[in-house]
Amino acid sequence: MTEPNSKELRRRHPIPPKDGFGFALLALILAVALWLATGWVMWLVKQTMTANGFQASWADALLVLFALLPSGLLWSALRSLGQARRARQALQSENLIAARVHSSEAHTWAWFTLGYVGALVLFLLFVLFFIANNVAVGRTFFQLELIRNSFGLILQAFWVNVVIFLFAGVFSLIWGLVVAIAKLLPGKPAQPIRFIATFYTDAFLSLPSIIVIYLIGFGLPLTGIGFFRNLPLEALAVLALTLTYGAYMAEVYRAGLESIHPSQWAAARSLGLSYGQTLRFVVVPQAVRRIIPPLLNNFIGMQKDTALVNVVGVIDAFNQARIIASNDFNLSAVTTVAILFILITIPQTRLVDRLVERDRARFRQG
Amino acid sequence: MSFLEIRNVHKRFGANEVLRGINLTVEEHQVVCLIGPSGCGKSTLLRCINGLEEIQEGEIRLHGDRITGPGVDLNALRRDVGIVFQSFNLFPHMTVLQNITLAPTQVLRMPEPEARAKALALLKRIGLEHKAQAYPDQLSGGQQQRVAIARALAMEPMLLLLDEITSALDPELVSEVLNLLRELAREGMTMILATHEMGFAREVASKVCFMYGGVVHEEGPPEQIFSNPQRERTQQFLASIIEAGRL
Predict the structure, then answer these.
(1) Which of A252, A245, A240 is nearest to A183 (CA)?
(2) Which of A259, A269, A271, A273 has the most B C-beta neighbours within 10 Å, making it the best mutation to test the interface with B?
(3) Minimum CA–CA partner of A280 in chain B
(4) Which residue from A minimizes the CA distance to B108?
(5) Which residue blocks in A185-312 are alpha helix, DSSP H?
(6) % of chain A with per-residue pLDDT over 90
(7) Which residues of B touch A (CB under 8 A)?
(8) CB-based contact A271 B103, cutoff 8 Å
(9) What region holds the ABC transmembrane type-1 domain (chain A) (predicted)?
(10) Which residue range(s) make up the domain with B21?
(11) Which residues touch B166 (CB under 8 Å, ≥6 apart)?
(12) Best of A188, A261, A264, A270 to disrupt the B interface by mutation (most B CBs within 10 Å)?
C-alpha cells in the first residue's frame, strides 16, 4: 500500500472553517465600548450647552437619540455571535457545509459592526473637537448668525468667481485645443510652431497659477500699455487662468487626439479629406468624447483657483469673506465660501462620475 | 499608355525594404489580384498607389500622369483612387449615412440632399437601406465592410483598391462581400485587390500577380498562375494553399 499523497489527504480531510467566535466577541466588546463612549460625549455636549445657557427640549431629545443610536450595533454584534455559535455547533456535529454558511454570516456581521464602529468613532472625535475649549472651534468656524448675515454679500461676490470661471473655462477649452493641434502639426514647416506650443505648455504647466495671476494682474497694468491699463482686473484674471489652464487642457486634448487610431486618419485621408477636414470631422469629435471626464476635472480645478484672484485685489467671494472675517475676528464667513464652492462642485464631480461610468459601460459592451 | 503604370517602385520603412522594385501595369476595367505570403508587400503597394505611403524610388502613373513624388495633389488623387481596408475603418461616431456622405459633401462640395440621395441609392444596392441611421458598431462585420465599400464608391473612383477586405470577417460573412465585388467587376470597375481568397481570385481576376520578396515574382492570367505556375516559389505557395484546403 502506498502512502496517500497530500492531495488525497486534503480530499479526505477538507479544511474546516473557523467559527469566527473570537471575532464576533471582539465586535461585541467594541460595540459596547462605543455605546458607552457615545453616552459620555453626549453628556459632555449637554454640559457645554448648560454652561453656555442654552436649553431646548428638542436639543435634549436629539442628544438622547444620538446616545441611543449605537445600540443598533449591539444587535448586529449579537447576531454575529449567534451565527458563530451555530457554526461551532455545526463543526462539532461535523456538518462542514452548515458550518461554512454560519461562519461566513458571523464574519459578515462582525465586519458590519466594525465598519460602523469606525465611522462613529470619527463622528465622536469631530463632536469633541467642535465643543473643545468651550465650543471655540464651533464659534470660530460655524457661527450661524455670522453666516446668515454675511451670506448675501458673499453670494454677490461669489458671482465674480462664477463669471471668471465661466469665461476662463470656455476660453481655456478653446485655447487648449488650438495649442494641442499646434503641438501635433506634422512636417518640417510646422517645426517652429510645434516648438512654441511645446515651450508654452512646459512653461505654464510648471508655473504656479498664483504667480501667473500675480504677474498678469499687477504686471500688465504697470506696463502702461493702454489696452491692458483699461482692462478690468477680472479680465486680467480670466487671461491668467486661461493661460494656465489652457496648458493643462492642451495636454488632455493631446492625449485624446493621439489616442485615435492611425487607421481613422488613413480612412479619412484616403477619401480625399484634407488634414484639417480630417481633424474637424473625424479625429477631434472622437477624441473629445473620450476626454470629457478629464477636461471636466480640469474645469473643476480651475473653478477652485478662481479664489486665488484675491492676490491682485479682485473682490471675489474669498476676498469678501476675508474682509468680513477680519472685521468680526471670526472665520464663519469663510466657511460660507467653502460651502458655496462645495455646493457648485459636487454636482459636477457626480456628472464626471456618470460620464466615466457611461464610458466604461460602452467599453464593456465592446 | 496603360491606365495605371507602376515602375520600379521601392519602399523602405527605415532599414526594412518592403518593396524592392515593383513593376505592374493595369488596364481600365481590369481586376488585378495580388496574392502572396504575409509580409510580401501587397498592402504596402496598395497604400503607395493611394498616396498613404511615400515611395523612395520609381514612379506610379495614372492615365499617364505621375501620382508619386513631390508636388502631387494627394487630395485630388484620392478622389480618383479609393481604398477599402481590412479593418473597415468606418467612422464610429457617425451613422452609416454620414459615413458615406462625408467625403462627397466635404471634398466634392456636393449639396447635402444630392449626397444623401446618392448614399441611399448605394445602400439600397448593397442591401443595407434599413441601416442608414445605424452606427457602425451596430452592424455585423460583413455589413460594415459593405458600407466601407459603399463609402469608397460614393466618391465615384476610377480605381478601387481593396486591401484583404475579407480577412477580418467570419467565414459566413465573406460571401456577402465577395458577391458585391463580383457585381462591381461585372460592371467594369477597375480594381486591384490583395486577397487570400484564391477561389475568388481565380474566378474574377483578369490578371493575378504573385508577390514575393517585395517584387512581382510571377504574373499572368488566373488559369496560368493557378494551374500552371512557372516559378518554383509560386508552386510552393500554391501547394501550401491547396494543402490548407483554400483552393
Answers:
(1) A252
(2) A271
(3) B106
(4) A272
(5) 191-206, 209-214, 220-222, 226-229, 233-258, 262-270, 275-277, 284-305
(6) 51
(7) 47, 50, 52, 74-76, 78-79, 82-83, 85, 87, 89-93, 102-103, 106-107, 137, 151-152, 155
(8) yes
(9) 158-352
(10) 4-243
(11) B145, B174, B177, B178, B195, B196, B197
(12) A270
Regarding the domain delimited by A146-365, which CATH topology (the fold level of the hierarchy) does it fall under?
A: MetI-like fold (1.10.3720)
CATH number of the domain to which B138 belongs = 3.40.50.300
Residue A224, pLDDT > 90, answer no
Strand locations in chain B (E): 4-13, 16-26, 31-35, 57-62, 65-66, 81-84, 159-163, 190-194, 207-212, 215-220
Average pLDDT in chain A:
88
Number of domains into which chain B is organized = 1
pLDDT computed for residue B172 by the predictor:
84
Which chain B residue shows the shortest CA-CA distance from A363? B137
**Is the Cβ–Cβ distance between B81 and B157 less than 8 Å?**
yes
User: Residue A289 and residue B83: Cβ atoms within 8 Å?
Assistant: no
Q: pLDDT per residue over B34-86, tens digit each?
A: 999 988 899 999 999 999 999 999 999 999 889 998 888 888 889 899 999 99
What residue ranges of chain A are covered by domains with CATH 1.10.3720.10?
Answer: 146-365
Residue A141, C-beta contacts closer than 8 angstroms, at least 6 positions apart? A331, A332, A335
Question: Looking at this predicted complex, what is its ipTM?
Answer: 0.91
Question: Measuring CA to CA, which residue among B74, B11, B31 is closest to residue B185?
Answer: B31
- At residue B246, what is the residue type? R
Contact A84, A19 (CB under 8 A): yes
Q: How far is B230 from chain A (nearest CA, A)?
A: 36
**Number of C-beta neighbours around residue B62 at 10 A:** 20
d(CA A63, CA A45): 8
User: How many angstroms separate the CA atoms of A295 and A250, rounded?
Assistant: 10
